[in-house]
Structures are given as structure tokens and as C-alpha cells.
Amino acid sequence: MISVEEARRIILSHVKVLGAEKVNLFSALGRILAEDVLSPLNIPPWNNTAMDGFAVRAEDTRGASPESPVILEVIEDLPAGYMARHPVGPRQAIRIMTGAPIPDGADAVVRVEETELIDDHQIKVFVEVEPARDIRMAGEDIKKGAVILEKGSLVRPPDVGLLASIQRSFIAVYQRPVVAILSTGDELVDIDEPLVKGKIVNSNGYSLAAQVLECGGIPVQLGIAKDTKEDLEEKFSQGLEADVLISSGGVSVGDYDFVKQVLKNLGTEMQFWRVAMRPGSPLAFGIMRGKPAFGLPGNPVSAMVTFELFVRPALLKMSGRKKIFRPLLKALAEEDIKTAEGKKHFIRVTLKLKKGRYHASTTGPQGSGILRSMSLSHGLAVVPETQSLVKAGEEVLVIPLNPSFEDRESLSFSLEEETPEAETGSSHAQGHDPGEDCC
Ligand code: AMP
Ligand code: MG
User: Fold this and answer.
1) 141-199 pLDDT, tens per residue?
2) How far is the CA of 347 from the centre of ligand 2 (A)?
């Protein structure tokens, strides 16, 4: 049996980053950049006004005050989107709208509310302004030649906006890994088949496909294989077109657990098949004709937890992602958590913020068949193999499982609601340096 860390090291040493492809801007959302993006231009491209007002020469406003305003001649009106026709000369001003380029000669803006119209051609200015006042400088957002998005980073909505602003309609991103998913077991029926006595629904095929989607991969369902070597061989072979193969079930030591043997028969170089963890101890990994193949355990929680710990980082690495592990959170155990020494435990917990600290409570029974413990959880508390008890009040590290973590009300406050006094908001909560312990 090897440790979780050793298993992960072996897996990651065998997976390679996939090739790049060019996609249009919208398809880039949620993908990983395969190029450093340099800006070919300054943004904004020219100095422009941040306010509606008058473009002036700052020196002309010297000494201006409500009691003794300066009088300037208005020589032009300038809406956004146009260039001024005249330069601003001494004791002159150009009426200017937010976003309009600063005319030559002007070096500051006086806001409308700091002026008064005398007639169409003259204004009173009541304030003294410094040069550069209310001017958005050329390149203050983005400098020409600067790297604005880095290779290996995730494209998010503001990044799509940035790419549009530098007129990039196509962008290089890494390919999404195609992941073939095979469910094994005579007891399984598919989602729309009659649930006759003795059968259960193949839920793993769906939870695993959802996990693949969530980390950016493309799931391909190979369906259900019977517990026979022939059927397993045939169905596994159908997955060879994919970049990664995942099966669930049949990796344990039961009479009908043929997955390891079938993987070997198909030429898989097996790397390991047991990991010192709970849930999820039986877990086979090998390279099948150049493709990583994971034989995940059949129990629904074990399948999902082993996906989270081993398959997810592998898929993120293949997708070109730099950050492949989730940063851990520190939390205080709300109750005693008992575990078996010698195995690393991943306990499903909910998190609550109290006075700026996370508190973790188990979701209830932790059986590896209790899928609802995953559904209820905000994350997985990690209890090291050297420990058999976490006492109430002691600190544990928690792998936050993102979507539920963000949605659950106990962890976040809606802007419309008042912040309860006892719970000071997630910004105060103690995170953990992502560089150190990551899962
Ligand atoms: P196994 O490792 O094949 O003995 O499976 C362990 C447990 O997980 C058994 O109770 C199976 O019925 C269950 N199981 C296996 N595959 C699936 C699946 N695809 N969906 C739901 N439960 C499963
Ligand atoms: Mg089975």
C-alpha cells in the first residue's frame, strides 16, 4: 500500500500536458491559456477625461476660488469618440465629456460642478486644479507590450473583456481531456432502466462525468460492463480513443473483481492498486497503451473522493493548468472525529464561520456508500495516517469542494442581508497558504 502523496506523485509523473488549439473568444471562457497574451496597444490608447467638465491648462486656474473665479473662453464642445479640432491655448477651455481624448495644450480637467456658465463662450472656474487632475492616462490600464494574461491561467469573464479590448478574436488554449468512463457491476442498471430486485442505479457514471465536466474535461460514457473478463475487455477497449480511462467498481479483492486483471490483459503497465486512505483504498492506476487508466473503487463516495484527489489534478495538469491542487482551509473540529491509524481519512464536513474562523462538523455517518454525505458536505477534512482521533476544538485541514462551498448560506452573506455580529464574514476567515499543503 502506498501513501496518498506517493500515489499522486506517480500519477502526475505519468501525465503530460495536451496540445493547444485556437478557439474563438467565447469558447475560451473556462479554458486554460496556451500562450502568454501580450497587448499590442496602450489601453486607454490616449489620455482622456474621467469626468464631464472642461479641459484646461492647470496653470490658468491658479488662484481660482469661489470668491474670485477665473474666467476662461470655451472654444469647442467635445463628446466622447472624437478628437478636438483645436488645441487649448492660454485662458481657453474645451467642454469635454467623460472618455473624450484630452485636447492638445490641456493638462487637467475642471469638473462641470466646479464651474458656472457666463454665456455660450465663457465660464467661471471656481477651483484651482493640479496638472493631470481627472485625466485617465494612456496605458494606465494596460501598457503596450505588457503580458496581460499568462499561459496556464484560467480564462474568466474579465479576461474575455481584456482579450476583446485588444481585438483578439481567436486565442490559443489547451485541449480539453476526453475522459472515457466505464461503470462495472452485474448489479447496475442505467438511469432509465427498470430497477428490478437486486439492482441499483449506476450513479457513479453520472457523478464522475459531472466531476470531469467540472474540471474542464469532456466525459464519454462507455456505459455498464458486466463482471466478466470478456465484457470488461470489450468495453475498456472502446475507451482507447479517449485521453484518459476511468472505471469504477471491481478493483477490490472480491471473486468478481476483474478490473486489474483485465487492465493487465489489455497491456496496461500497472503502477499501483492500493492506497493507504479511507474512503477509497482499492484504487488501481496504470498506463494503458500510453493513456492513464484509473480503476476507481465502486462505492459512490470512494469513487468521488479518489477522483477528487487523483483524477482531478491529473486532468488539470493535462489541461495545462498551473494550479492543480485546491488550497486547504484550517478549521476547528466541532466534535471528536475518530479514524483508524495507518490510513489518511477524508471526512465529509460542513463548515460554519464563527468569529472569523471555520468550524467543521461531520455530515453524519461516513460510510463509503453514503453519497449524501458528499452532497451535504462543504469539503473533506483530512486526518493524517498518524492520527486516530481529532478532538473537538482541535484544528483540521479541509479541502473545500468548491461549488457547494460557495453556495452554502452559512459561509457567505448576501449583500442585501445584514451581517450577523457573531459571524464576521469570509474575508476574515483563516485561509491556508496554498503553497504549503494543497490537496
Ligand atoms: P465493487 O468494488 O465493485 O465491489 O463495488 C463496491 C460497491 O459499490 C458495491 O456496493 C456496488 O454495488 C457499488 N457500486 C459499484 N459501482 C457502482 C456504480 N456505478 N454506481 C453506484 N454504486 C456502485
Ligand atoms: Mg462490483
Assistant:
1) 999 999 999 999 999 999 999 999 999 999 999 999 999 999 999 999 999 999 999 99
2) 24
Residue 63's Cβ-side half-sphere holds a number of Cα atoms within 13 Å equal to: 4
Sign for the pseudo-dihedral over CA of 382, 386, 388, 390 = negative
Cα(234) to ligand 2 centroid in Å equals: 17
Residue 102: which of 62, 129, 63, 64 has the closest Cα? 129
Residues 260-318 have pLDDT tens digits of 999 999 999 999 999 999 998 899 999 999 999 999 999 999 999 999 999 999 999 99
- The model's pTM is 0.86
Q: Cα(146) to centroid of ligand 1, in Å?
A: 52
* Ligand lying nearest the CA atom of residue 251: 1
Burial (Cβ within 10 Å: 0-12, 13-18, ≥19) of residue 353: buried
Residue 301 to residues 247, 266, 439: CA-CA distances in angstroms?
A: 14, 28, 17
Distance (angstroms) between ligand 2 centre and the Cα of 104 equals 78
CA distances from 387 to 257, 274, 361 (A): 31, 20, 18
- Does any ligand 1 atom lie closer than 6 A to the CB of residue 87? no
Please give the number of the atom of ligand 1 that sits closest to the Cα of 302: 8
> Is residue 58 within 8 Å of 130, Cβ to Cβ?
yes
Nearest Cα to Cα of residue 351 among 392, 405, 389, 309:
405
- Ligand 1, pocket-test mutation among 200, 232, 252, most atoms within 8 A of CB: 200
In DSSP terms, which residues pair with 232 in a beta bridge? none
